[in-house]
């Protein structure tokens, strides 16, 4: 295989989860509608032609996916009935199922790993085909980020991440700084969803490999 190994990072506005891969020399394709001042690629528009282009860059080694969690997270369960009725949940489910379609297409061409991130909630119930793949839960403080945010991963990847645990800090009545972030602004949503850097490094260390030619 010629060209670099490729990481496809979906719903990746900040680049946090994919950063260790990029720094190690992998070609990282970030996909998020918010990139380039809102003119970024829409995951729903990815088709076989686009995937063939990506494969022309190099072997697609892994897929990272952090789809919007607002309609699935247990912390917002009181809003689920309204979202189910007005179509909001259905639109979010389209993103999950499109992610799985992309993964299945790339698995035919030698995809090595894939991982989908979401918080504790109702994802398995709404997308039962995911039950076979998780969730596997982690806490940021296991990997050196001193706060709590129990997060689930689904997929086919190495779960033996090297741990560097620290004591989580309680900075408010609710717990960690993430739990204290209220509001509905895009900025607070981005802060809540930012991948813990220690976890990102540990995930890379557990799932990377030497370049092969």
Keywords:
213 residues, alpha/beta, Rossmann fold, six-stranded mixed beta sheet, 9 helices, 6 strands, globular
Short description, anyone?
The protein has helices at residues 19-23, 35-38, 48-57, 80-86, 88-107, 123-126, 177-180, 186-193, 197-207, and strands at residues 6-10, 27-31, 60-65, 113-119, 136-138, 151-156.
Please provide a written account of the structure:
The protein has 213 residues and is an alpha/beta fold. The chain has a single domain, classed as Rossmann fold. Helices cover 34% and strands 15% of the residues. The protein is built from 9 helices and 6 strands; from the N terminus they run E-H-E-H-H-E-H-H-E-H-E-E-H-H-H. Helix 1 links the parallel strand 1 and strand 2. The protein is globular and about 50 Å long.
Q: Identify the CATH homologous superfamily.
A: Vaccinia Virus protein VP39
Q: How does the helix and strand content classify structurally? A: alpha/beta
User: What is the mean predicted local confidence, pLDDT?
Assistant: 89
Total number of distinct structural domains: 1
| Percent range for β-strand residues | 15-25%
The share of residues in helices is: 25-40%
Can you write the helix and strand succession as a string?
EHEHHEHHEHEEHHH
Low-pLDDT segments: none
* Number of DSSP strand runs: 6
Give the end-to-end Cα distance, rounded to a whole number of Å.
5 Å
Largest sheet: 6 strands, mixed
CATH class: Alpha Beta
Major sheet strand order? 2-1-3-4-6-5
CATH topology: Rossmann fold
């Amino acid at each position: 295989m010629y060209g670099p190994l490729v990481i496809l990072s979906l719903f990746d506005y900040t680049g946090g989860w994919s950063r260790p891969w990029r720094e190690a020399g992998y070609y990282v394709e970030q996909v998020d509608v918010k990139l380039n001042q809102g003119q970024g690629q829409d995951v729903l528009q990815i088709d076989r032609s686009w995937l063939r282009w990506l494969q022309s860059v190099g072997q697609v080694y892994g897929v990272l996916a952090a789809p919007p969690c607002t309609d699935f997270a247990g912390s917002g369960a009181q809003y689920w009935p309204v979202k189910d009725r007005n179509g909001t949940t259905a639109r979010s489910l389209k993103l999950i199922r499109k992610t799985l379609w992309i993964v299945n297409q790339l698995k035919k061409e030698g995809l090595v790993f894939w991982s989908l991130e979401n918080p504790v909630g109702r994802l398995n119930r709404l997308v039962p085909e995911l039950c076979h793949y998780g969730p596997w839960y982690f806490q940021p403080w296991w990997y050196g980020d001193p706060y709590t945010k129990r997060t689930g991963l689904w997929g086919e990847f190495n779960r033996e991440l090297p741990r560097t645990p620290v004591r989580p800090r309680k900075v408010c009545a609710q717990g960690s700084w993430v739990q204290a972030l209220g509001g509905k602004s895009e900025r607070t949503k981005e802060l809540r969803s930012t991948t813990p850097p220690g976890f990102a490094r540990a995930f890379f260390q557990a799932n990377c490999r030497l370049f092969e030619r």
